[in-house]
From TrEMBL:
Superkingdom of the organism of origin: Bacteria
Species assigned in the record: Candidatus Thiomargarita nelsonii
InterPro entries: SGNH_hydro_sf (IPR036514)
Keyword Flavoprotein: no
Gene Ontology MF terms in the entry: hydrolase activity, acting on ester bonds
Coiled-coil regions listed: none
Lineage start: Bacteria, Pseudomonadati, Pseudomonadota, Gammaproteobacteria, Thiotrichales
Transmembrane segment boundaries: 7-26
Protein name as annotated: AlgX/AlgJ SGNH hydrolase-like domain-containing protein
Length: 337
């Protein structure tokens, strides 16, 4: 009996010591960057952190006082595609949109605010909009959906609520991260991973399975879209809300971004790559806001390449195609006087 107790004690001390060292080293060195995102789910841009980031932490050379009530003010919500990752400020989608709109409508003072930032999602965009949206007096709120948003919205909600296994984040965050990373690499553990972490293992799960299997997961992003729409109407002086669905290159080309660092995360032009677009097409007549897909605009363009060689984000030309398409759809919706 004593021998058994000694064995249990040794095992306990070994596990405790391992976890302690893992937490000590991980929190201060190896996983310091990832820990930042767990402790700071919103991970917004810091005010004035760069010349093109204003005091509200959005990508703009202008402050909110430029957005006067008598002007036509438009807010773009989105992630790195809207932010313009890898692009100078004047080549980002919101800026190119603003430039085109101003040229076409010289009698209107049109101001565009870029509320996008890397790894944002509709949930985080909604939180930002609630915090600073009113300052920009928006007449139009445009939310651009990217293919990572479906997974991100579930992940961020769980991290914010810290339910179930996510309660460990406050106590042993590094052990939590290590276990999660290990399970992410083992496909056979999909059911266990989904049960433990309350979300699918693969970031792009939404285009890896038929809509009939993934539809339940759309409820998360759909709720956040509805919340943004409702907030725009009730709290932003009945601002018009428009939803834009952005494609990634793997959904319209097998030649783009040949050295793409994430190309192994999805099947290029796969059997289910268009399932998200089918979903939004199916609900168009059920919602009270317009939905537009940019997939046809990229499928039909003769411009190549639209993305960087090593990265899935749009280059200057890709951003221009998107900006022109969004302008076209806004024109159809009567956004300009």
């Amino acid at each position: 009996m004593i021998k058994k107790l000694k064995t249990i004690f040794v095992v306990f001390i070994t596990i405790f010591s391992t976890v302690f060292l893992l937490e000590l080293i991980g929190q201060n060195f190896i996983f310091k960057g990832q820990l930042y995102f767990i402790n700071n789910v919103d991970h917004r841009l810091m005010p004035n952190e760069a010349p093109d980031i204003n005091s509200d932490g959005i990508r703009s050379f202008s402050e909110s006082d430029r957005f006067r009530q008598e002007d036509l003010n438009i807010i773009f919500l989105g992630d790195s595609f809207i932010f313009g990752l890898g692009l100078p400020y004047n080549k980002s989608i919101p800026y190119q949109f603003e430039e085109k709109a101003r040229k076409r409508h010289p009698n209107q003072q049109i101001n565009v605010a870029n509320f996008g930032w890397t790894s944002s999602s509709p949930l985080l965009s909604y939180r930002l909009l609630k915090d600073i949206g009113k300052k920009y007096n928006p007449d139009i709120v445009i939310l651009a959906i990217d293919m990572t948003d479906f997974h991100d919205d579930i992940k961020y909600l769980i991290l914010l609520e810290k339910k179930g296994i996510y309660q460990l984040v406050d106590y042993i965050p590094i052990s939590f991260l290590v276990l999660k990373k290990i399970m992410e690499k083992v496909a056979i553990l999909d059911p266990v991973y989904e049960w433990a972490y309350d979300l699918p293992r693969k970031m792009f799960f939404i285009t890896e399975k038929p809509l009939s299997e993934t539809r339940p997961y759309f409820s998360y992003i759909q709720q956040n879209i509805e919340d943004i729409n409702t907030f725009s109407k009730k709290e932003l002086n009945n601002a018009k809300f428009i939803l834009m669905i952005l494609p990634r290159s793997y959904q319209y080309s097998d030649k783009e971004s040949p050295n793409n660092w994430e190309k192994n995360e999805y099947e290029i032009l796969g059997q289910y790559s268009h399932e998200p677009f089918k979903y939004f097409e199916s609900i168009k007549n059920e919602v009270d806001y317009p939905i537009h897909s940019l997939l046809p605009d990229f499928q039909n363009t003769t411009i190549f390449p639209t993305c960087f060689d090593h990265d899935p984000h749009w280059n200057e030309e890709g951003a221009r195609i998107a900006a022109e398409a969004i302008y076209k759809y806004c024109l159809e919706e009567g956004c300009f006087k």
